[in-house]
Structure to design on (231 residues):
């Protein structure tokens, strides 16, 4: 039973507004799943239903992928992870959800109106398409390249091993505000917040606005999995 010994990472379903949504959403998720499998990890596709907590109990960590719209259940997943200090990696929209949660967790009631208010406060549309030039098809990934600058004391610096790197960005929104449970660890050369992590060293919580699953070296996902193994 080799699967019982593998690290299991729950991958939350993404809402992706694309033509032929079933097929293309599956293709979009495949890059995340392949990145995990290549690190010897077993992905667990989480289903957003009444059994979500049971599914999470089976996982060692959570990956929140990119998408067009934040599913409000993601905040429940992050709350579950916060209470248990379960490792979380959020990518693109996943990072935005982490930043919204950092504010939302201070609220007593999570009404639809309050969630929308905080989402609008935290996540802002970009003024231009400088971070959204990628037409998602084979052969043109370099169009999404952006240079970012990394805080030397951060986890992500340890993953890359240098302060200035080129990453692939593909997003139309950006994060404008975070709460005190998070710290900013990198910016793009045009001032966009590109990564955050928990201020609590005991909680492996990492969000990146860029797309490490589109890179060939997968240093972020590899580093994240290696950190899980150390815990």
């Amino acid at each position: 039973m080799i699967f019982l010994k593998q690290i299991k990472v729950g991958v939350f379903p993404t809402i992706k507004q694309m033509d032929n949504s079933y097929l293309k959403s599956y293709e979009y998720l495949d890059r995340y799943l392949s990145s995990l499998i290549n690190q010897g990890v077993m992905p667990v596709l989480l289903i957003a239903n009444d059994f979500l907590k049971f599914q999470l109990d089976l996982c060692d960590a959570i990956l929140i992928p990119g998408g067009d719209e934040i599913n409000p259940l993601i905040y429940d997943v992050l709350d579950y992870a916060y209470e248990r200090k379960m490792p979380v990696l959020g990518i693109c929209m996943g990072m935005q959800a982490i930043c919204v949660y950092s504010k939302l967790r201070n609220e007593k009631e999570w009404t639809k109106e309050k969630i929308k208010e905080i989402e609008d406060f935290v996540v802002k549309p970009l003024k231009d398409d400088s971070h959204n030039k990628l037409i998602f098809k084979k052969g043109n990934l370099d169009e999404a390249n952006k240079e970012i600058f990394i805080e030397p004391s951060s986890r992500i610096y340890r993953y890359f091993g240098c302060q200035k790197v080129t990453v692939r960005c593909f997003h139309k929104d950006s994060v404008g505000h975070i709460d005190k449970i998070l710290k900013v660890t990198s910016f793009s050369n045009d001032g966009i917040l590109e990564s955050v992590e928990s201020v609590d060293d005991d909680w492996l919580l990492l969000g990146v606005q860029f797309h490490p699953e589109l890179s060939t070296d997968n240093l972020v996902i590899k580093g994240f999995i290696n950190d899980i193994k150390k815990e």
